[in-house]
Each structure stands twice: as structure tokens, then as C-alpha cells.
TrEMBL record:
Keywords: Membrane, Transmembrane, Transmembrane helix. It comes from the Bacteria. It comes from Arthrobacter wenxiniae. This is Uncharacterized protein. The keyword Transmembrane helix applies.
Amino acid sequence: MSEDPQAREELSARIEQRRSAVATFLRGARPRRNRLANISIVGSALAALVTVGPAVGGTRFTSSVQGIFSLADDSIVWRVLCLAAVLLSLAAALSTNLANSHAVAAQVSAAEACNAELDGLDAALAFGHLSTDDAVALYRQYVAKVSFIDDAPRR
């Protein structure tokens, strides 16, 4: 590739296009990663919380809850707490497995790193600190890390 300004501009445009695609990906993936992590953490904590009462207090705990809510039978307390623990544990397990199976955290980290590398590459290219051939090689190396992100449509 030659060192003509048009080639540098074309590469700079490609870098900007890829950075736009990465930014679009991150706008969706970061909240998803955070949401899945929060569901897992909160679900696990709440599942533990609903089981601690019967585990520590035993029949006294369930009888007290039965009296507070005017329930006909203390077995209702056990069933509701067990069902709540199962549902919360299920939500925590599903969110953890969804995050892990889709490698959301790893993809977000790779996209953030690629975005920073492309920013540095664009600056080095703009200020002439890098030949076009070297910049193309680095561009290919950086975008290979985020092959899971589709290109943004060209303007």
C-alpha cells in the first residue's frame, strides 16, 4: 500500500466505522452484562435469605409467621419459602449460565480493549507517526479480536 493521503483517509474512515460498530455493541452488551451479574448476585442472596429463617428458627419461626399472616397451617410458610428459594436460585443459576455461555464479560473486555487500540491507531495515523502499511497490519490485528462484532453500515 502506498503512502498517499487518500489511502490514509480510507483507513482512517474504516477505523472510525469499526469504532462506531464497537461502540454500538458496547451500548447493548455492558447493560446486559451488568443485568445478568446483578440478577445472579441478588437472586443468590435472596435465596439464602428466605431459607435462613426456617433453618435457624425451625418450627418456632414458621409458627410465628403463620400467626403474623393468619395462615391456617404452618406448612404454607414452608412451601412458600421453599418455592421462593427455588425460583430465586433458578433465576441466579440461569443468569450466571447465560452470561458464561455467551461470554458476555469476555466480549465486553475485548471490545473495550479494541476500541482503545483503534483510538490510538487513529491518532498515530492522523499525526503521521505510523506508515500506512504498518497501520493496516495493526488494524487487522486489532479487529481480529472482535470478530463477533459486525461492521457498522457505511455512510
